[in-house]
Amino acid sequence: MDKEATNKTKILKLLLFGVVIFVLAMGSWIFGEFVRLTLFKPAWKADFDNGMSLKNSNPDEAQRLILKAINEAKESKIGGRDIAKMYLQYGLFSAAEKDWGTARKYFDQAFILLDELKDYSLEADCCQSAAWAEHCEYWNNHSWKPEVDYEKKAVEAASKNGGEKSTEYYLWTLGNLYIDRGEFKEAEESFNKATAILSNTGQKTTAYDLSSLARLYAAQHQWDKSLETFLKAHELGLHEKDDVRLVDSGYLRTALAEANPDKNKYDFSEVRVLLERKDFDKLDQIAQKLRTEQEVLPNGQWRLDKFYEDLFYLQYTDSGKQWQSYLNSLLDWTVHNPDSPTAHIALAYAYMRYAWRVRGDGESFSVSPSGWQFMKERLKKAEAQLHEAEALSTKCPHMYAVWANIALGQGHKKADYDKKIEKCAKDFPTYLTLKMSKNYFLLPRWYGDSGEWEKRTKELADKVGGIDGDVLYAQMIWDLDYIEVFNNIFSDNQGLDWQRVKRGMQEIIKRYPHDTIVRAELIKLALQAKDDKTAKEAFKRSF
């Protein structure tokens, strides 16, 4: 027995020794790869990484380095898979720069190469990335009708990789892209195929799947069916970690905005084209008409505010080159028509947004000294443009909305803010934007005390009184909820009166019975207030 035990011990020691050697060998190989890739990085890899890091700050240099890297990589005979990834990344970079010809050229080269390699899994993912890049332009401003060819390729590649069951994920995306194009029959066919695959494989629909279906129903004005499906998606999303805020984060609001019977009130997509064409006279005509009409939207803002929002079509992720090009167009407008308040206010707004782009919206300690200096300079330029607008004979209330953002960045005193509100109310009695903006200024993260903005909201609504006071109260809550500074506006702020918000929102629906944006906001607020009954009744009133 002793001899047998000794043999077992020897065997165990040998096995343990073998495991240790294997672990050391693998560790050495992994560490060696890490050292090789970091300290002895191939020239093409270094150029590519440097190019990608410069794509926002210096797009011209980024383009030069990325193209150089691609040529170097091809000469070094690296794997076709890596080349295809580089093609895709350069295509995405070109799409971000609005160079669609180059983008599609490199997308197609990536797909052809992956198809030759029979790497269908990567091809499907690459095709979907290209499809999203194309549709980003539509999602940002609805200024063109996107294609679905790349997502169709994704479905085809997925099918080659793992059969029909592998296409389910891509079919949901394809259906959503069809909705973008207004092709609801094709969208329904895609969703039906995806649902059938889930059923055949014993899987269940996710919150994203249900929200996609709800979006289709909304687009077809099947309101009750849409809401029922959205509520199911919301409930399911609470149990899906990745989708917990799927409905609350605006997916419902976006879908109902797209399907809104009154959406023409909100749509100023033409202004981007007019600015790019430098048709400044037409832009001035539109703005003056909106100032004269003074039409108020359900949330309390003027339609004029929406005009300015759509006129500023840049994204924070756009490159510095794109920002400068946009600023130059606005500068040309002020030269073309120096007496246009719209031109000066639009330029002030752009300078202000540029300032906040560099600063970011984090805590003050997270901002670099150079970031502070850049912000200070741009806000000063924005302020100068507002002074130009204020000196003109034609007055525009949106000047006050831009001032509110400048005041936030410059840390104005509360008394100064109140003086501006009084002046705005005197010049434009129905313009509530500045009055509502002060609530954001009074958040504890900026210049207010805990509970201050909630107390102010109640006092303002009480001063108006009656159902109109309830409407104002609801609009002010809606304004803060829209910019999503809270995870849940009611649980994060104990002093709010949900019943008053509900009365106000229901009255707004009576005044704007066909506007689904109001109903979407009521549903969103009701879900946050845990009032499922009110959410479910949001579409009981017929259109």
Poorly predicted residue ranges = 29-39, 242-247
Approximately how much helix is present in the residues? over 70%
The rounded distance between the terminal residues' Cα atoms is 90 Å
What number is the mean pLDDT? 86
Q: Main β-sheet: number of strands, strand sense, barrel status?
A: none
Strand content: under 5%
Overall structural class, as computed from helix and strand content, comes to: mainly alpha
Strand elements, count: 0
Number of helices: 26
Series of secondary-structure elements, N-terminal to C-terminal: HHHHHHHHHHHHHHHHHHHHHHHHHH
**Principal-axes shape call:** globular
Instruction: Round the Cα radius of gyration to an integer and report it.
Output: 28 Å
In short:
By secondary structure, the chain is mainly alpha-helical. It has helices at residues 2-39, 43-53, 59-75, 80-96, 100-117, 120-141, 149-162, 168-180, 184-200, 207-219, 223-237, 247-258, 270-276, 280-293, 303-311, 320-336, 341-359, 369-390, 398-410, 414-427, 433-441, 452-464, 466-482, 498-511, 516-528, 532-536.
What would you say this structure looks like, in words?
With 543 residues, the chain is mainly α. It contains 26 helices and no strands. The chain has helices at 2-39, 43-53, 59-75, 80-96, 100-117, 120-141, 149-162, 168-180, 184-200, 207-219, 223-237, 247-258, 270-276, 280-293, 303-311, 320-336, 341-359, 369-390, 398-410, 414-427, 433-441, 452-464, 466-482, 498-511, 516-528, 532-536. Helix 10 packs antiparallel against helix 11 and helix 16 (320-336) runs antiparallel to helix 17. The chain is globular. The model is unreliable at 29-39 and 242-247 (pLDDT under 50).
